[in-house]
TrEMBL record:
MF (Gene Ontology): DNA binding
All copies of domain GapR-like DNA-binding, residue ranges: 7-78
Coiled coil location: 4-38
InterPro entries: GapR-like, GapR-like_DNA-bd
Domain of life: Bacteria
Protein's name according to its UniProt entry: UPF0335 protein A7A08_01542
Signal peptide span: none
Phylogenetic classification of the source organism: Bacteria, Pseudomonadati, Pseudomonadota, Alphaproteobacteria, Hyphomicrobiales
Organism field: Methyloligella halotolerans
Entry similarity comment: Belongs to the UPF0335 family.
Keyword annotations: Coiled coil
Amino acid sequence: MSLHSSAKDQLHTIVARIERLEEEKAALAADLKEVYAEAKANGFDTKALKSVIRIRKQDEEKRKEEEAVLTTYLHALGMADDGAEDEVAAA
């Protein structure tokens, strides 16, 4: 299979763009790792921070619904305080 000159040029352009984006992605990953290390050095729990970031990305209604279900399950298993039941009733 042989590519025409314009297809070869297009392929080179696409490959170069992908390579550039991969480099940017690696740089961003390194930056994120550095910020999490800084947070940990300052006494923050990085696992909790990652959970906070994940939660903040969610739609508010979906998040509230998931929290209500989780609270209900925890209460049913005796793992939630009495205030959790009030939160479920309010939701």
